[in-house]
Amino acid sequence: MGSSSNTNTSGGGSDKEEKEDKGKGKDSSEPSFKEGDRVLAYHGPLLYEAKVQRIENLEDEWRYFVHYLGWNKNWDEWVANDRLLKLTDENIRKQQELEKNQVVDKTVKSGRSTQHKLKGANADAKADKDDTKNLVKGKKRKTQPGTEEKEKRSSESLLVSQFPLTLKKQLVDDWENVTQLGKLVKLPRSPTVDDILKRYLEHRAKKDNKINDSYAEILKGLRCYFDKALPAMLLYKKERDQYTEEVKGDISPSTVYGAEHLLRLFVKLPELLAFVNMEEDALNKLQQKLLDILKFLQKNQSTFFISVYDDRKGADGSKSK
């Protein structure tokens, strides 16, 4: 997601605002938020929708354990009052404005960097092909002591900061349907992950007026990542029985699951890309291509994603563990 949770940033608010917010948490007999509240939480410079799971009073200051909706529970953390905002229309507009400013800032920086690109189309094509091969092979990046955190932040930056807002909402709805309502995505999906990736390649070929080898390699890598990552990190607990029933023998998950689970992979990609062996410039170029795939998902959101989840297994979770 954003920057390290150890940084107690409030997203660039004024000192006066910070002091006022912190004052609400200190020496207050009542917490500002309660368990189960939906809130907006700062993580780095951006705001994310979250749910308060636990609260505690430590040395006369209230702290809140939050889960970022649509994100892996590994991001769950304790935060102070100054990291949280109420989920109001005004604060949602503030969230959108922060994201918009972040995208503009990244675009400006990206525009400057284009002045230093490799000369010649052949050099660019070779670099793209080498970079995408690394994604397919999944090579671990060689790091020097003290550089791991810096590289990890770099690998997260573009995908996190420019993740389309409507797809974030899709992730939240997906999380609520499965974990809170006990509903499941009906399988097999149509279109499948394989279908979506093939459609995207056709879309790029039409747009570029040729088959783009670098995108073909990336899609091959994404399919491989999806098949391996799905049972390991993309399923909620209540979906595991369904996976066992649907994916048997030599069946690939990418031929059974669809856009809902593919989108979950994009949430995990920053974490996975931290271990890919590439230089920072090449990694940024790869992320730009991955963002283009995300925009394709967003453009076809009403076609690729389901609006109604299957409750035939029972919302009480009788057959889901």
TrEMBL record:
Biased composition (Basic and acidic residues): 14-36, 125-134
Keyword Transcription listed: yes
Localization per Swiss-Prot or TrEMBL: Nucleus
Region listing for Disordered, in residue ranges: 1-36, 105-155
GO biological process, alphabetically ordered: chromatin organization; regulation of long-day photoperiodism, flowering
Domain called Chromo: residue spans: 32-100
Lineage: superkingdom: Eukaryota
Gene3D superfamilies to which the protein is assigned, alphabetical: 2.30.30.140, MRG domain
Chief site of localization: nucleus
Name the record gives this protein: Chromo domain-containing protein
